[in-house]
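Final report, Chapter 2: Outcomes

The project's central promise was a pipeline that accepts a single protein chain and returns its three-dimensional structure in a standardized token representation, suitable for archiving and comparison. That pipeline is now operational. To close this chapter, we reproduce one record exactly as it appears in the project archive, with the input sequence first and the structure output second.
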Amino acid sequence: MENISKFNEGDHIKGVYLVSNVTKGKTNNGSDYLSIKFQDATGEIDAKLWQVSAEQMQEIINGAFVYIEGNVIKYRDALQLKVDSTKVVAESEVDITRFIKSAPVDKSDLRNELQQFIYEIDDRIINVIVTEMVKKYEAQLVEYPAAAKIHHAYNGGLIYHIVSMLRLAKALLNLYPSLNKNYLYAGIILHDLGKIEELSGVLATEYTVKGKLLGHISIIHSQIQRIAEDINEQDSEQVIILEHLVLSHHGKYEYGSPVLPLIKEAEILTFIDNIDARMDTLDNALETVEPGTFTPRLFALENRAFYKPKNEK
């Protein structure tokens, strides 16, 4: 099976790939077709299946593993797969690791590093809330992506995003010692944990009903309140500030935050989150292009195409 990252125009493809997204459409003459996004651990490619049987319409769904034969073409300056035939393959017959990109750091190392940061939170109330929250989501935390698309959208992406942000925070604390370490570390650890309930998982990640109706910000906010009530600290300033950090971490109303950052640590948290998300988005996009060329336009980065210098290592 050829890795998607190695596809070239004119290649004839035979192999099993994961369906990460599929939509149904109709041609001008009323015939059904499928627009499919296939993925493996190396990348994704858009595909079209023009002559669709009733069986294919039923079987080719998000999360399905499909053996395909087809040809790589170029459409609007991007590679696309024109699919000729398909056969759905049982999950038990494939090695799932071939289809899912993983964080570039060992998960056990990330877990240990996260725990070390939690040890450094020396406020009792804050430490209890963070510890309880991480314990609640312990199993999923090392597996889940941080998003369905865009940034850290891979196996282990959530914990990698959190630990990367904590490393940035530690460096900034050395530069700006007036920042409160407990609030900044706790805000980073808590800010995206709600995505474990907002998202469906690693394979063909989608938004859950709860995720669509509530969103990860309100999900984790309610969890903070529940733990605070359990330890009879719901009215403490520490809890109120933790709630504020989570509620404001998107930085703007139009980005989904119900309140704007109103303490230093909330302001810095927003910037750290944005830096790490943008760097991951850029790294992923630049991996797919050759030196001396541009990436496709990146919607999450103001629809800009980024250049990969020829002398880049």
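Archive annotation: The chain has a mean pLDDT of 92.
This record, like all others produced under the grant, will remain available to the consortium after the project formally closes.
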